[in-house]
Design goal:
- The complex is a heterodimer of chains A (255) and B (205).
- Chain A is α/β, with parallel strands linked by helices.
- Chain A is built from 10 helices and 11 strands.
- Chain A has an 8-stranded parallel barrel, surrounded by 8 helices.
- Chain B is α/β, with parallel strands linked by helices and 205 residues long.
- The longest helix of chain B has 16 residues.
- The two termini of chain B are 13 Å apart.
- Classes of the chains: A alpha/beta (255), B alpha/beta (205).
């Protein structure tokens, strides 16, 4: 049986993981390479690393980190942040990423998705969607935001997800802007709406505050994977504890 | 020396990282002449069988690989490296492959998410030294949209459920090939590489 995936996320700026640096259990693990290795040892099914500064100056630092992670972590590595061209995609794949995540540039330049998928295969192209709720209660709808959540696009999220898959995305990384950082649970309705719309795997992101939140996104939200940062960085639970909890609740996970 | 065949569509870096981690020497090669000196060859792969076959033919590696396998020398195929061993693939409209193992490569059936992406269990159909130290039902990382359907089912030593039983490991003499990516399957995957290298280096050519 295909296991649901637990995916820790490292947001990197200036060569350091920016969430969770003050956390006790991982005192000296603002280092992304160390943290990725720790999560790998704890049973992470994949690792996602996002360059949140996404500047040209930062790019070589990120490349070094990707190379080091891929030498020490033998599970899939997805890298994103500031990917704007086919060359950016190629560069990350050659540096050791298994998948490359495209967000703003995918919406502004959809042919980047189709060209990248043609060139490197859909399996290596993840389209990231940041969405914000606009509808009410029964007719909930979500609008896609770009540029790190700063710019509204007027595009509806499920429609964009469907289009992204048609263009060649092999996976959707779906973040709820409303839920992100609040640790009060994922946006289950959004997750379910997108999961039921597309034929490729969906990674739910934004809002994880407990192990039960992970379960809800996977079961009620029908996500294939859950991404979380704070709950692992701040030691609310370890990856192994999360998996043991999910297994006990009847969710198929790899332990 | 373990040769990793680079034909422009493989995740050679991940595979060479895994081999290096196990303390073995790996060399990435893309010239037919370099194949001869290897103890074993590994053909990794991501992407499409169509592109892989086109590149292998352009680089004149298709014949070298066929000859290598015909001589019974140790071979490990991963993902696309498994699929290209077959007669023909449905991918890209009937792509002719190496024809070493009779059978077809088919599209995964509807009703499941495609690609088949993530960790899934491998049921060991027979006891085989490539499974040494790996529990029956252990999970490996899969990432594929097509699956192999060998005419001779006795070659299937590992099977995985994904709507249908999917052939996930085949063995024929010194040829072993997996649909999943051992280099992305954590410690269990590294163990499988270790088993393969041990088997490969036990033979003297």
């Amino acid at each position: 049986m295909l296991a649901k995936r637990i995916v820790p996320c490292l947001d990197v700026a200036g060569g350091r993981v920016v969430k969770g640096t003050s956390f006790v259990r991982l005192r000296d693990s603002g280092d992304p390479v160390e943290l990725a290795h720790l999560y790998y040892q704890e049973g992470a099914d994949e690792v996602v690393m996002l360059d949140i500064t996404a500047t040209a100056e930062e790019r070589h630092t990120v490349t070094d980190i990707v190379e080091s992670i891929s030498e020490n972590v033998f599970v899939p590595l997805t890298v994103g942040g500031g990917i704007r061209s086919i060359d950016d995609v190629r560069h990350m794949l050659l540096s050791g990423a298994d998948k490359v995540c495209i967000n703003t540039a995918a919406l502004l330049n959809p042919t980047l998705v189709s060209k990248s998928a043609d060139k490197f295969g859909s399996q290596s192209i993840v389209v990231a969607i940041d969405a914000k709720r606009i509808g009410r209660a029964r007719q909930a709808q979500w609008e896609v935001y770009i540029c790190a959540g700063q710019r509204a696009t007027g595009t509806e999220a499920t429609a964009w997800a469907k289009r992204a898959v048609e263009l060649g995305a092999g996976e959707i990384l779906l973040t709820s802007i409303d839920a992100d950082g609040h640790r009060a649970g994922y946006d289950i309705e959004l997750t379910r709406a997108v999961s039921e719309t597309v034929t490729v795997p969906v990674i739910a992101s934004g809002g994880a505050g407990s192990m039960e939140d992970l379960r809800r996104a996977l079961v009620s939200g029908k996500a294939d994977a859950v991404l979380a940062a704070s709950i692992f960085h701040y030691g609310i639970c370890s990856i192994l504890e999360a998996k043991e909890y999910l297994a006990k609740k009847g969710v198929a996970v790899r332990i | 020396m373990i040769a990793i065949v680079d034909y422009g569509a493989g995740n050679v870096r991940s595979v060479s990282n895994a081999i290096a981690r196990l303390g073995h020497q790996a060399k990435v090669i893309s010239e037919p002449s370099e194949v001869a000196n290897a103890k074993a060859i590994i053909v990794p792969g991501v992407g499409s069988a169509t592109d892989a076959m086109a590149n292998l033919r352009t680089l004149k590696l298709a014949e070298s690989i066929k000859q290598w396998i015909a001589e019974g020398r140790p071979f490990l195929g991963v993902c696309i490296g498994l699929q290209i061993l077959f007669t023909v693939s449905e991918e890209g409209g009937w792509c002719e492959c190496l024809g070493i193992i009779p059978g077809r490569v088919r599209r995964l059936p509807l009703g499941q998410k495609v690609p088949h992406m993530g960790w899934n269990q491998v049921k060991q159909k027979v006891s085989h030294p490539v499974f040494d130290g790996i529990p029956d039902g252990a999970s490996f990382y899969f990432l594929h949209s097509y699956y192999v359907d060998p005419a001779d089912r006795s070659l299937v030593i590992g099977e995985t459920e994904y709507g249908i039983p999917v052939c996930s490991v085949i063995a024929a003499g010194n040829l072993i090939a997996t649909q999943f990516h051992p280099e992305k399957s954590g410690k269990i995957g590294l163990r499988m590489y270790e088993n393969f290298i041990r088997l490969a280096t036990a033979h003297i050519y």
